[in-house]
Amino acid sequence: MAAERPAAAPLYRIGRPAREPRLPVRLVILGATGSIGTQAVDLAVRHPDRLQVVGVSAASRVEELAALVRRLEAAGAARAPAAALVDPSAARAAARDPLLGRRLLPPGPAGLDELAALDGADCVVNGLVGAAGLAPTLAAAAAGRRIALANKESLVVGGDLVRAAVARGGAEVVPVDSEHSALAQCLSGRAAEELERLVLTCSGGPFRTWTAAAMAAARKDEVLSHPTWNMGAKITVDSATLMNKGLEVIEAHVLFGTAYRDIEVVVHPGSIVHSLAVFRDGAVVAQLGAPDMRVPLLYALAGERHWPLATERLDLARLGELRFEAPDPERFPCLALARRAGEAGGRAPIVLNAANEAAVAALLDDRLGYADIAAVIAATLDELPGGPVADLAEALETDAAARRVAQRLIEARARR
Ligand SMILES: NC(=O)c1ccc[n+]([C@@H]2O[C@H](COP(=O)([O-])OP(=O)(O)OC[C@H]3O[C@@H](n4cnc5c(N)ncnc54)[C@H](OP(=O)(O)O)[C@@H]3O)[C@@H](O)[C@H]2O)c1
């Protein structure tokens, strides 16, 4: 594997002892109206003695955000939290809202960054979708916050930038993605040198058993019917192409410093085993549980402690068996595209992610078919030069250039 990047310094501090956080944990929820965000709100409503929400954001959904604030305040889990709406017209509507108007931050990325670094917050949940999550991750890192990171794109697009900002700001990143949370739990109390490799599990998505011909004709509603997880639209499409797992391979490399050759993906249709760590004596530690994102989310909010939560408990005897199989690289080319981009490093993962975001948006907009997603990403990667990325400005320029190329390729395909 000529392009292999060696193991890097881990962003996640393996083996660090968990400390009970000072209570209540004061939370900022970025992307509060989304799938991750509403689950974070749900956890605060269940644990108002432990979690207090001091800030929330949305892109444009003002009424939904106001309803969440009302729910949090009724449960005693928030008191006049700061709010940020990215969309300027939504921010104007929020200014007139009796709940959101009380402590409204400026619209656009500036307000989001201000919220990510809000005075008095302990922990920032990043439940934003896409590369838009990177700048707020950097702002939270610079402010020294604990970052409960669901936004994997932050690490795909800016892994080195986040690592540097976390070190400078004295922040910490705790993964929320169920696979990476599982790995963090498997590595609890271990030293990095004990680890041999990581195994990320993957549900296989809705097309696991489909033929290539059937997949080529897949309808949008079929792409969007995930067999085990109920999530936002973008990650649901990524799960159908297995790009989600590709992004997670890069995320695992950045978080745990593991070389790409030592990160394996295995399809596990039940989504019960969330991931596994293989140690250098051959011992394997896995983390299991019913698929429920509130479990890894609460683990991150609790400073990596297991707080009480009423969730479905595993009944292994009823489950009977656990199935595993190798992913099919022919039918799911996005997995290899992501791995190659991760191994190349620098601009390549930024281009990969931007092209994927453009292609997924086009699919959701009925401008691109499922089968064309991988082709658009591959052609965008081929067209743009690689090379190192010095700073956030260069990362954002690369992202914008890749979106322009991908957009042109999408339009060309639509005209065919
Ligand atoms: N959902 C899951 O179960 C799950 C599991 C593992 C990892 N993740 C990761 O968590 C992240 C969030 O996923 P999700 O499924 O929760 O997404 P989602 O349901 O689409 O929610 C996205 C949230 O971000 C806001 N938003 C969207 N675009 C934005 C932008 N450009 N700038 C600022 N805010 C923006 C949305 O606001 P509006 O509501 O106003 O549009 C919404 O609050 C993704 O990185 C995903 O890969 C999710």
Question: Overview of this structure, please?
Answer:
With 416 residues, the protein is α/β, with parallel strands linked by helices. It has helices at residues 35-46, 62-74, 88-95, 108-116, 134-142, 153-169, 178-186, 212-216, 220-223, 233-241, 243-256, 294-301, 316-319, 333-344, 348-364, 372-383, 392-415, and strands at 25-30, 51-58, 78-85, 123-126, 146-149, 172-175, 195-202, 263-267, 273-279, 284-288. It contains 17 helices and 10 strands. Strands 3-2-1-4-5-6 form a 6-stranded parallel beta sheet, with helices on both faces. It has a 4-stranded mixed beta sheet with strand order 8-7-9-10, covered by helices on one side. The longest helix is centred in the last third of the chain and has 24 residues, at 392-415. The chain is globular. The mean pLDDT is 96. Bound molecules: NADP nicotinamide-adenine-dinucleotide phosphate (NAP). NADP nicotinamide-adenine-dinucleotide phosphate binds at residues 31-37, 58-61, 86, 112, 127-129, 132, 150-153, 177, 229, 231-232, 234-235, 293.
Question: Summary?
Answer:
The chain is an alpha/beta fold. The chain is built from 17 helices and ten strands. It is 45% helix and 14% strand.
Q: Low-confidence segments, ≥5 residues, pLDDT <50?
A: none
Separation, N- and C-terminal Cα atoms: 37 Å
Going across the biggest sheet, name each strand in turn. Answer: 3-2-1-4-5-6
SS content category: alpha/beta
